Fold this protein.
Amino acid sequence: MSTTSSLFTDLDFDRDGKQFGYIQAPQSTNTAAWANLFIPLIVIKHGDGPTALLFGGNHGDEYEGPVTLLKLARTISPEHVRGRIILVPALNLPAVQANTRLSPLDGRNMNRAFPGSPSDTITGQIAHFVSSVLIPMADVVVDVHSGGRSMHFLPSVNMHRVADPRQMSEMVRLAMAWGAPYVFIYRDVAGSGLLPGYAESLGKPTLGTEMGSASQYGPATLKLAYDGLRNVLAEMGVLSDEHRTPATPSQIVASELRDDYIMSPASGIFEPLVELGDTVEVGQPVGCIHFIEQPSWEPVVIRAKTAGFVMSRRAIPLTQQGDCVVVVARRIE
Ligand code: CA
């Protein structure tokens, strides 16, 4: 079994200047026996310095990353850079083109496919190229996410709590530089194999985001993504300080308990009873589930199991048992 990726790029990562190109992934489809998937890749390099690796479109229905990375790719001149910026604006390209969270080619979640393997389905092959070729070059990894279609979020820059205190304080420092309202420490409650988790496990300073959601998508969110990424690049010294946009200091918050992630106990129509930012107490109703097939049934009330405030809530009314409907966070030092 091969350990070498069949994916490739014509770009030269060591060349000064700005290069637009692609990661090409061999494909064979019903309508094209011989084909390649062309995943956009941009390299901006100028002299020696740190390498920033930026991703958008890891989840296809989250367009804050793709739009922001395309803007950065066009607007940053090599003369502004000290070191290197590698941009992948649409990592899960087929999903970005289909407005789906998961790849329409193999039904897989790119953000559960890491580190991937060359003999995997296409999503895992792309993950493997990222793990074996791109991430090893990076001094900082940023993966821009939002809640997509299914979740609303207070805008945050986020990370797991990693074991190494030096890596953790470096990640918090870079996250604070973004200038988002919240720096959010989360835990995985829906599987492993995340791109940020993999980069964190290598000791790389790694930032994720939840910039809002499909229905919060607008100029304010996109400005936060664009300014924030430039702020992080300036904090790294990859861009000069004149590229910074001042922002009010972020609050550091965390949802580290399993019970902070409230899953629906039943399938039906979700009625939210709290807004983003609302304070919640233990036992407080945060939503209920209505049963359209049984009009006489009382809705099931969903209650908070932890105290804090609402960091995220479900955006799609139709809900299956086990879907996360509310995330409760708390301020920490
Ligand atoms: Ca996401």
